Fold each of these.
Amino acid sequence: MAAQEMARAGLAVTIFDRMPSPARKFLLAGRGGLNLTHTEPLETFMTRYGTSAPQLHPMIEAFTPDMLRTWSEDLGEPTFAGSSGRVFPKSFKASPLLRALLRRLDDLGVRLFARHSFAGFDERGLPILLDAQQLRVTKHFDVHVFALGGASWPKLGSDARWCEWFSARGIVVHPFKPANCGFDVNWSEHFISRFAGAPLKNIGFAMGERHVRGEAMIAQTGVEGGAIYALSAPLRDEIAQAGFAMLHLDLHPDVEEAELARRLARPRNGQSMSSFLRKAAGLSPVEAALLREAQRDLPDEAQALAHLIKHLPLRLERVRPIARAISSAGGIAFDEVDAGLMLRQAPGLFVCGEMLDWEAPTGGYLLQACFATGFVAGQAAAHYAAGVGLLRQ
Ligand SMILES: Cc1cc2nc3c(=O)[nH]c(=O)nc-3n(C[C@H](O)[C@H](O)[C@H](O)COP(=O)(O)OP(=O)(O)OC[C@H]3O[C@@H](n4cnc5c(N)ncnc54)[C@H](O)[C@@H]3O)c2cc1C
């Protein structure tokens, strides 16, 4: 996005990416359908960025969710909004959009070099760029926009090594932490041998005062999935503070506890507990087994059983490694950049995307902020270049 804006403004642009091909994480995001953005009103939309909302607000206003949809459509990938408001390309894929963008960049004269990496700054403070043979690229560039990503899924390219080089220049880089990540649970062997991979659908999840309704999945080592990701920031911070975090599940969010107790008060007539729970309370086998994971001897009394179903405690032991998280929290502090995302200490160097210190839940907020900050950084880099007389024409 930054390259597009710079090239449209008339700059001769070269992209370097350390991987054999670009945008691998974007392509992986496409496997889940590529949730590009969200249709909710901007006011609500901005709340998803938590404490970084004030800094990101002007960026998202400069490149709004509607503009992102139009951009995708102009590249031959019209979008649609699902019932939740999440926006996807109709193709549900990232690859056609990426191909179209690369074609557009090529038409704009942008050159792309794969297997070329940024490897720190030289004594003049200029980026060191290495080619595929690890030889220094000697060409001089007048402005630089860094879009090196955060720290999740390093094997796709964003290994966050840049933190060390930026920190060494005195730029404040907050340590990366997993965001939108799974958590470890000490499942019993019996439970996990039967239910690894099982989905939990339409469940209420609560952490303190925060409530989320949605889906999750039983993973070999714990839990993951959309509803867990939505609570992952407070859960992660709680584990950092207390050494563990308690999540409470409502296995039957559509039925009041009193009504559930009434249904569970009927005689069992010799049924096994799990078939009774299925028939009387509509619990799936994995949900019934989760009850037993929490409390080996289930209460006989209907009211107590209903309460457990509505407030099932799940102890989360650890955060899953950042290498498998959807995104990361942390990065370059917003104080380090101006309104155009240029580093205050290093005129001519711009940063965008997950390199910056913000976090957001899934729902299209991640890509929206990456595209918007890329858009702003690209335009600001072009203005900067124009200001110092570097335009090609
Ligand atoms: C499984 C998964 C699913 C996701 N699904 C969605 C979704 O549906 N919706 C959504 O909004 N977000 C989603 N995301 C998040 C989204 O993909 C990221 O937020 C986004 O890709 C970050 O963009 P970025 O440009 O900041 O960094 P990245 O996409 O990580 O790109 C950074 C680039 O910099 C290159 N690079 C890094 N270091 C160097 C170096 N030293 N030299 C040269 N090149 C370097 C890398 O090779 C890479 O190409 C998903 C993420 C994952 C992992």
Amino acid sequence: MSFRDIKARKTFEIGGKRVNLGSQRTVDLTISETYSGHPVVMPVHIVRAKEPGPVVAVTASVHGDEINGMGVVRQLVLDPGFKLSKGTLVLVPVVNVLGFERFSRYMPDRRDLNRSFPGSGGGSLTARVANAVFEQVIRRCDYCIDLHSAAVRRTNFPNVRADLDQHETRLLAESFGTELVIHGKGPDGSMRRAATDAGVPTIILEAGEVWKIEPTMVEVGVRGIRNVLIALGMVKGRRKPARYQAIVRETTWLRAVHGGVLRFHVSPGDVVAKGQPVATNTDLVGREKNLLLSSASGIVLGMTTLPAVKPGDPVCHIARLDADQLRSVVASLDESLSDRFRDYMASAVSVEEHSESSDWAI
Ligand SMILES: [Zn+2]
């Protein structure tokens, strides 16, 4: 399986501005207006190799509080660590400019931009912004990588999500090179679903937390994008694959049973066995109320970063793996970037070993 042949375009225009082969420039696209009637602009940075080839969009902060992706895009503009030998990169540091202004996931009309694609020119504020982004940017590209982080009060072990039943989105996802690749078309109205439906295969990265530019998450994002560009023949070099790659078709949330304060026994990226202690729920003075056990075997995909919970609050998101997958994951664990970002992410949550959890057989 390989990517389709792209009919390479010599000319590329965006916002009425032409970008020549072998050059780069920033174009301010007007996507809405303020209350004072001034234009709301979304900067787009275009990098073109000397040789034409695929056009790849990298978009970030469709949710205005998820700015790790902005960090990735800034790195790609300033110091990507690779040279584009073919094709065009269309880099959008912040899609949801209006949400970002308020550090909010949502648009000012309280809609979720990432449930509003492809939008419409005569619809709500959010529908019009979605439409402007879709028509002016997404439709001009052959592929798209959309960068996200966990929602507020949670963190995500870096993972790529894609429709794995569509062969080009699967190729993009697998070449990006995160440990976990999670299957799904994406919610109705999400940019990746609408773009893929419109013939622009799109994957998303989910990495880290809101309101932060986390250096290890930026490293993961830049490395993955470089991997994809190598797979597309746009960058020369060798891909840096993850030490393992598990395809995940099912995930499970563990939820708090009682109100209380959690002591975690696992951190993002850990391998967990079914029945293994995940967190101890305590009262305010630290006395144990109950022990939360994992209901599945797999990898810790996401966690709450706020240890105070009420019954039903999400605690831990598990990517389910079967026994064969778990064995190959455990066999591949060694010192690498993944260890560094696992250690870093463990510092964002307070983790201590549970007294009986020393030796869980996988
Ligand atoms: Zn998001």
